[in-house]
Amino acid sequence: MEKEIQQRLVLLEQLRSEAEGIQRRIVEMELVKNELQRTIESLEFFQNLENDVEALMNLGGGVFAYVNVNESKKMLVDIGAGVVVEREVGEAIEYLKSKRERIEETTRKLQEVLNQIASQMEKLQAEIAKLSKEAEKGEEKK
């Protein structure tokens, strides 16, 4: 009986660890999604501009420079693996919206897996409680 309880406790700890990893991944995905949303909003601003615009460019290390954006209708978009392509602002927005949708879908799937793990953990906890009570009853009879 003690061995069965130990096995379930080990499995419960493994599930808990897996759930924590999935939760961290969900938080990371939400951060990326929020960054994409801010970028989409910025691009929509550029899309509606008629003239040149002065903007701040992040040079890194907390240093910014004023720049004049002469061509605000085309953007360079990182499409992955370090590949950057020129896109019209509208195309860039659509690309980022598509990327955001993929992230949302991945987040939904991760949440489903997390819910399944939580369900398994509840079952294991109930089994452990039941086995513990049975073990206590067995000890009382001795």
What key attributes describe this structure?
alpha+beta, 4 strands, two-stranded antiparallel ribbon, 20% strand, 142 residues
What would your notes on this structure say?
The protein has helices at residues 2-47, 89-141, and strands at residues 53-60, 63-69, 74-80, 83-88. It is of the alpha+beta class. It has a domain at 2-47 and 89-141. A two-stranded antiparallel ribbon has the order 1-2. The chain has a two-stranded antiparallel sheet with strand order 3-4. The longest helix is centred in the last third of the chain and has 53 residues, at 89-141. The mean pLDDT is 90.
Backbone structural class: alpha+beta
Mean pLDDT: 90
Radius of gyration: 26 Å
Largest sheet: 2 strands, antiparallel
User: What pattern of helices and strands is seen along the backbone?
Assistant: HEEEEH
Which residues sit in consecutive blocks of at least 5 with pLDDT less than 50? none
Percent strand equals 15-25%
Strand order of the largest sheet: 1-2
Structure summary, number of beta strands: 4
Kindly report how far apart the N and C termini lie. Answer: 15 Å
Number of helices: 2
- Global geometry: rod-shaped
Helix content range of the residues, please? 55-70%
